[in-house]
Every structure is written in structure tokens, then in C-alpha cells.
């Protein structure tokens, strides 16, 4: 990777960490510059304005999500195990008492650019589509048992994980996330 790519990725890494802790409106380029050890002008070189940074953040987050669920699909055929691995994607930020980038961006949705809002919606749609497919396949294969449609269950599953992140963060208690995640799995068996 070239130096420009390294610096841009480092900026995105730091920005994502800050957003996941403080929200999109809770920081400035000066905060990133201080953590990265560069001038704010350097950040503007890669991301001319905060909207550009937001678009890059959600685009990268979406790309990483698509890659992660593709890996889950490759690694296992067991739909219950796929759901357990999906939960781990949402568990990672909880370990730092943060929420996922998409949840934090959603809290600032009214102040985000149209492209960032569309990126957040695209991210959630991809989550729901993947969950619905896995739930449908699991029920058809006799491995998952639930009432109602897979579409409704996918929405409930995703909303529960997002809410579990918020509760774990609010109480600074990872076990709250774990209890909800365990309940989601046990409700399907």
C-alpha cells in the first residue's frame, strides 16, 4: 500500500473510532489530527470536508460488512452458526462500550448529508437481506424454528442487536448484550 493509502486508512480508522464513541457531530478534524499526529490540512487533502469523510466511512463500513457476511457464508452451511457469527460482528464494538458505526450515524441522521444517509440505509438493508435469507434457509432446512415471516424476524433480530449495544454501552455492562444475543439464538431453536 502506498503512503497516501496508509494515511487515508489511518484517518478513517481514527474517525470511525471517534464516531463510534462520540457520534458524527461530536468531533472535528482537529480531534482526528491530534490522534493521528498530522495537521488538519492533511485530513482535508484526503477528505475535503466532513461529508466526504462520512461518505468514506459508511462506504468502507458497508464494504467490510459485505466481506464479513460473505466469509460467514463461506465458512459454514449451518444457519444457526451463521447467526452466531453475525452476532459477533455486533459484539465487537460492545467490548469497548461503543456501538457500531451505523447505529451512531443513525443517531445523527438528521444532520448528515444525503449520501451518508443513503449509505446508512444501504448498510441496514444489506443486514436485513442477509438475515432474511439465512432465516428463510434455516427454517426451510428444519434448523431454525420461528413464527411469522423471515422478514419480520430479520428486523427484530437486527433491532435487538442494536438495542443490546446501546444497553451495554449505557450500563457499561457487556453481559446485557450477551443476554439479548443468547435470547435471540434460543428463540430460534
Automatic annotation (TrEMBL):
DNA-binding region: 28-47
Protein name (Swiss-Prot/TrEMBL): TetR/AcrR family transcriptional regulator
Gene3D superfamilies hit by this protein: Tetracycline Repressor, domain 2
Lineage top rank: taxon: Bacteria
Transcription regulation as UniProt keyword: yes
HTH tetR-type domain ranges (all copies): 5-65
Record Pfam families: TetR_C_13, TetR_N
Keyword annotations: DNA-binding, Transcription, Transcription regulation
Transmembrane segments: none
